[in-house]
Specification:
Layout (H helix, E strand, L loop, with lengths): L2 H6 L5 E5 L4 H10 L2 E5 L5 H9 L3
Parallel strand pairs: 1-2
Length: 56
């Protein structure tokens, strides 16, 4: 399917990507207006989600 069309159809999209392999996540996030967080490892995911899902 078309990833961009699917992502654009969402009300909100947040992306959590590994900091050493984030190129595609950043490209997709930029293209669809998603918020993106880079994490160093699994222990960083909760803090990244807290940041991404905080009210703006």
């Amino acid at each position: 399917g078309d990833v961009l069309a699917a992502a654009n159809g969402l009300d909100e999209l947040v992306i959590v990507a590994p900091e050493h392999d984030d190129t595609e996540a950043l490209v997709l996030g930029t293209a669809v207006g998603a918020r993106v967080a880079r994490v160093g490892g699994p222990v960083d995911v909760p803090a990244a989600l807290d940041l991404l899902l905080a009210p703006t």
